[in-house]
Amino acid sequence: MSFSLLAAQESKLRIIQTNSAGDNIHIIDPVTNKVVGEIKGIEAKHGIAVSRDGKRIYVSEEAQKTVTVFDGTTLEVIKRIPLSGNPNLIDTTPDGRWIYAAIAQTWDDLSEFPQIKAAASGGVDVIDTASLQNIKTIAIKGGIHDLNVTPDGKYVVAGASRGAKPPANMINVIDTKTNEIAWKLLMSPAPSPMAISKNPDGSAKLIFAQLGDFNGFAVADFATQTKIDQIKLPELPPRATEPFRAARRISRHCGNRGSKDAIGQQQAEQCPLRLLAAGPEALGRCRAEREGRRLVDDHARRQDGLRGQ
Predict the structure, then answer these.
(1) Which of 108, 97, 101, 111 minimizes the C-alpha distance to 80?
(2) Could you tell me the pLDDT band of residue 43, with boundaries at 50, 70 and 90?
(3) In CATH, what number is assigned to the domain containing residue 192?
(4) Pair (216, 92) in one structural domain
(5) CA-to-CA separations, 216 to 201, 208, 233, in angstroms, rounded
(6) 98 with 221, same domain?
(7) Does 219 share its domain with 254?
(8) Strands 24-29 and 13-18
C-alpha cells in the first residue's frame, strides 16, 4: 500500500491511494472523505509520487516492471517507462526533475528449477521527468525496497530489501548531483520504512528507520553518518492486538473484491478494516462475508465477557 498527497490544480488537495489487493487506484477528497476519481487496470502497483503541479501521477508497477505516468486530470496513461527490475517505492526530487525508483531483487532465475532464485542485485533507477526516460541504474547488492529523497533534494536515502538473501542490512545514501553512492551505514535488520527530518536550512538532519521485525526504530545522524539511538516501542498486550490480526485475515479473505485498504464505499462494506479501529461495537455491525462476521463476532463476544467480569 502506498499513498500520496496531490497538490492539484485550483488548490485542491487529493489523496491518491493504491490498493494492494485490487487492480485500481482511488483518488480521495480529504474534505469529504469521498472517492472522486479512479484509475483502473493497474496490477501490482507499489509506489506512487505526484508532480508538484499535480499534472502527472507516477506509479511503480511490479507486474509491468515500469513506472507508469498518468495525466493528473484525465487519469489516462501518458507513458510506461521500463525499469531494470522489480520496482518498489519511488520518490521525486523537490524540483520535480528526477524520479528515483527502488529496485528490489527479482525472483525469476530458473537455472536451478524447481528452486527459484533471485537476481544478484537490484538498486535504484534514475528517471528524467523531462524526457520520461530511465537514464541510469545504480546497482546495489541485495536490492532496495524503501527510499526517500532528502528535503533539500541533494540525496536519496535507500534502505536495503528485507527479503534479500544473504541480507544486505544497509542504508545507502545517493548523491543526486552525481547519481552515485556517497556513503553507507550498516543497520541490522534492514531499514524499512524510513522518514527524514530537516535542519532550519532544509538539509537532512536525522533518519528514522524502522528495523525489520524489531518493534521500534533506529535514529541515524545524517551529518556524522552514524547511528545514534534505537527506540523500542511499548509492547501491546495480546488482547489489544487481536482486532488487527483479524483485520489481516479479513483483508486476505476479501482480497479478490478489490482494495484491502477499504477505500471505496463498496469495498468498505465488504472488508471492514476501517471499522476495526472503532472497537467491538462497530465490528458487530459490520457487513462482511461469513468468515469476516465470524472473526468480528467472536472478538465482540470476548470483549463483552471481559466487560462483564
Answers:
(1) 101
(2) confident
(3) 2.130.10.10
(4) yes
(5) 28, 10, 5
(6) yes
(7) no
(8) antiparallel
Domains: count for the chain: 3
The range of the structural domain enclosing residue 280 comes to 238-308
C-alpha span between 107 and 178 (Å, rounded)? 30
- Give me the amino acid identity at 247: A
Contacts made by residues 301-308, CB under 8 angstroms, sequence distance 24+: 302/239, 302/242, 303/279, 304/280, 306/239
Examine the domain organization and report whether 95 and 187 are in the same domain: yes
Q: What is the mean pLDDT of residues 52-65?
A: 92
Same domain, 225 and 292: no
Q: Which residue has the higher pLDDT, 235 or 278?
A: 235
pLDDT digits (tens, 9 = 90+) for 147-195: 999 999 999 999 988 766 677 788 999 999 999 999 999 988 888 889 9
Cα-Cα end-to-end distance for the chain:
39
